[in-house]
Amino acid sequence: MSQPFEGRLLSEEVEAQLLAEIDLQLKRLLKAAKANVKYAACDLALEFDFGTPRDMKKAVRWYKRAAEAGDERAMVNLGFAYANGDGVRRNLVLALYWYRRAARRGNRTAIDNLAELRRLEGGVSRGSRKPPDGNRH
């Protein structure tokens, strides 16, 4: 069966080729991430985070690996996941930790998100249920 693509229909053959190419690219990215190729773990996490189907538990696992290796983008996205309880149990202490690590490196998104969490800091120490507004990388 053909699927619509920007107003056109893809033939089954073209659709199968595209899906095979996506699968191959994900396998390559996974191999690179496991080999600790710079930025590959965060790129893989982004695929799980924003791809179809979405799998935030896997995304968080790869964000954490990338963040621990020093990837600022991963630090921001991991902080966002903890701040909002997306794929992990909500934990504002860990959200602050990851935002601070990225902010120390000059990451503007982390600085903005950290300011938002600090604005809510009274809620942080008292266990506020309201997720902070924030941005992702």
Written account of the structure:
- The protein is mainly α and about 140 residues long.
- It has one domain: Serine Threonine Protein Phosphatase 5, Tetratricopeptide repeat, CATH 1.25.40.
- The protein is about 65% helix and about 5% strand.
- The protein has seven helices and two strands, in the order ββααααααα.
- It has a two-stranded antiparallel ribbon.
- β1 and β2 form a beta hairpin.
- α5 packs antiparallel against α6.
- The longest helix is centred in the N-terminal third of the chain and has 23 residues.
- It is elongated, with a radius of gyration of 18 Å.
- The relative contact order is 0.10.
- About 5% of the residues have low confidence.
Radius of gyration: 18 Å
What would you call the shape? Answer: elongated
CATH class: Mainly Alpha
The CATH superfamily name is Tetratricopeptide repeat domain
How much of the polypeptide forms β-strand, as a percent range?
under 5%
Determine the CATH topology: Serine Threonine Protein Phosphatase 5, Tetratricopeptide repeat
* Terminal CA distance: 36 Å
Give me the side-by-side strand order of the main sheet. 1-2
For the biggest sheet, the summary is: 2 strands, antiparallel
Annotation, overall tally of beta strands: 2
The string of secondary-structure elements, in order, is EEHHHHHHH
Structural class: mainly alpha
From the coordinates shown, what is the CATH architecture?
Alpha Horseshoe
Mean pLDDT across every amino acid position: 86
Q: Structurally, how many domains make up the residues?
A: 1
Put simply, the count of helices is 7
Helix content: 55-70%
Unreliable stretches covering 5 or more consecutive residues = 125-130
